[in-house]
Design goal:
Elements lengths: L2 H8 L8 H36 L1 H7 L6 H24 L2 H26 L7 H18 L5 H30 L3 H19 L34 H19 L1 H11 L1 H6 L4 H25 L19 H11 L4 H25 L5 H13 L2 H7 L1 H19 L1
Helix pairs in contact: 2-15, 2-17, 3-4, 4-5, 4-14, 5-9, 5-12, 5-13, 5-14, 6-7, 6-8, 6-12, 6-13, 7-8, 7-12, 9-10, 9-14, 10-12, 13-14, 14-15, 16-17
Length: 410
């Protein structure tokens, strides 16, 4: 081995004489950004194709495409432009639409943070749905049971109780994982069903059921427990709580000893144990923190006021929707990073807010936005496929690696 090669290997990354390696990571980061943007484009293009194929009137014009192609192309363009135009107007087209996006995004961000934190600990938290159910149940119970409390006490009390019960529900899965080796995926899926059926049962009892009603629905949450909102909009305190939660998770993971242990256990539990860290205790704590964030998402669902009444939606079986399952896609799209989860939550919140307008104005299926969400995650999770579709990016990466190798060997 030559002396020059030895000297090149001893140079730190980014030092003088190693200009090519310094540019490598930066270029790879830009390639990742481009791949993500292309994934969005592919998802919306695929959604447009589904819209066109599912519309019988448009497909009827494609029957004589070769005779009058303008009719078919014009009808397809009108369908797609109308649908996506309505999607934009319903999500970011006005101040009111933006606040609706924030309201839809807040619980997604909270639950997504819980799933992402578990990911960083090497755990697959499928139980955000059950944790959100408990958060909604306890938040609503505190909201309509405790009367006479001032707003600045009632809201924090409801939120903290929701987070506490969510933490307990997540901690059960963490304890079983740490002490018995039970797989957290199976355990959390079963806990989701238990939480749902417990809610179904409790809504038929005097504890939660609205007096005088036979259907499973709770009383209305007191105004003192209702999230304050900007008048005439859906911008509530809950959205800012979600942003504070994201900042808190970032601080926990990046600036605390516990966060270091969580990341260490997630990357290599055997090495962490060898270094003296308690893997079981870290697992339990991680699932408890993740569960508290899921509980916070459930509290958002029952304490956020609607635009028409100014009061939250009453607790019922479908109160949390699919927020816990959507949180998995939010965490995946956000790369399990707090900032990424916030951006992914805003994106999915915009799709949910705009999807209502799109379904009403363009007569598209209500599940189309769910399809677009799934396609975005699919393409983002398969960067090799995107690079195969766009070989220019792959060739640039190959050339860069070759040039770096030549620079080191010179």
């Amino acid at each position: 081995m030559s002396e020059d090669l030895v000297a090149a290997k001893e140079l730190p990354l980014g030092s003088a004489g190693s200009a090519a390696p310094t540019k490598g990571p930066r270029s790879r980061a830009w390639v990742g950004v481009v791949v993500t943007l292309i994934s969005f484009v592919l998802a919306f293009v695929s959604g447009a194709i589904v819209m066109v194929v599912a519309d019988q009137d448009v497909m009827a014009k494609f029957a004589y495409f070769f005779d009058q192609p303008s009719d078919a192309l014009g009808a397809a363009w009108e369908k797609v432009s109308t649908a996506y135009g309505a999607l934009l107007r319903g999500s970011v087209g006005s101040w009111r639409a933006l606040t609706e996006t924030s309201a839809q995004a807040a619980p997604l961000i909270c639950a997504g943070l819980g799933v992402a934190l578990a990911f960083r600990a090497g755990l697959f938290n499928i139980g955000a749905q059950g944790q959100a159910v408990w958060g909604a149940l306890i938040g609503a119970f505190v909201g309509f049971t405790f009367t006479g409390l001032p707003l600045f006490i009632h809201i924090p009390f409801a939120l903290l109780m929701s987070m506490a019960f969510g933490a307990v529900w997540g901690g059960i899965a963490g304890f079983l994982k740490a002490k018995t080796g039970a797989h957290e995926v199976i355990v959390t899926i079963m806990l989701n069903y238990i939480a749902l059926y417990m809610l179904q049962f409790l809504l038929t009892t005097q504890l939660l059921q609205l007096p005088g009603r036979s259907d499973p629905i709770s009383p209305v949450v007191q105004f003192s427990a209702t999230m304050p909102r900007l008048e005439g909009t859906r911008l509530t305190l809950g959205f800012f709580i979600a942003l504070i939660a994201a900042a808190a998770v970032w601080w926990l993971l990046e600036r605390t000893t516990l966060g270091f242990r969580i990341r260490a256990v997630g990357q290599n539990p055997n090495a962490a144990a060898t270094a003296g860290m308690s893997v079981s205790r870290t697992t339990i704590i991680s699932m408890m923190v993740a569960g508290s964030l899921g509980g916070l998402a459930g509290a958002q669902a029952v304490l956020t006021p609607t635009l028409l009444t100014g009061f939250p939606t009453q607790l019922s079986l479908g109160i949390v929707g699919t927020v816990g399952f959507d949180a998995i896609t939010v965490a995946l799209l956000g790369r399990s990073r707090p900032l990424g989860v916030v951006l992914a939550g805003l994106l999915f919140g915009a799709l949910k807010a705009g999807g209502l307008t799109m379904a009403a104005q363009a007569q598209t299926p209500s599940d189309l936005t769910n399809l677009i969400q799934a396609l975005i995650v699919l393409f983002v999770a398969a960067p090799a496929f995107v690079l195969w579709l766009v070989p220019v990016l792959r060739e640039k990466r190959t050339k860069r690696v070759d040039s770096n190798t030549k620079a080191v060997a010179a």
